Amino acid sequence: MKEKILIVDDDDQLVSAYRDYLSGLGYPVDSAGEIEEAQTLLSHFQYSVVITDLRLSRLSFGGLELVKFIRDASLATRVVVLTAYGWPELKAEATNQGVDAFLRKPMRLSDLAKTVAVLSGGAA
After folding, report:
1. 3 state SS of 50
2. Reported pTM
3. In this structure, is residue 124 part of a structural domain?
4. What mean pLDDT comes out for the span 24-31?
5. pLDDT band at 31 (very low <50, low <70, confident <90, very high)
6. From residue 88, how far is each of 5, 58, 91, 104 by CA, in Å?
7. Strands lying side by side in the sheet with 78-83
8. How large is the average pLDDT for residues 11-32?
9. Residue 102: which CATH number?
10. What is the domain extent for residue 57?
11. Residue 46 belongs to some domain of the structure
């Protein structure tokens, strides 16, 4: 069985697309629409990879707040940040905070799957 994935995004259509695609590849997938829900899931379940949007509805850079929560809790979870904003400074800040991969929206679902495979220790 493949490693468990958590998707955090407030766009239900994107979450559905990501979940359907990754589930079709054999990954067990949970999802959350807000940081608090994601934190609760992370406190109760182990995830190999968290895929989070950078911008969540209430916070401009809520995805980075979630990264901070993961790193402060010393969770062995890899993090992929998705964003429509590709500023080099933002990517550098995300990397400094412990983000493992930074993907720019829109992207191919196959590119997301390759990133997840590499981060979860599967074949790319």
Report:
1. strand
2. 0.91
3. no
4. 97
5. very high
6. 27, 23, 5, 11
7. 29-32, 5-8, 49-53, 78-83, 101-104
8. 96
9. 3.40.50.2300
10. 5-119
11. yes
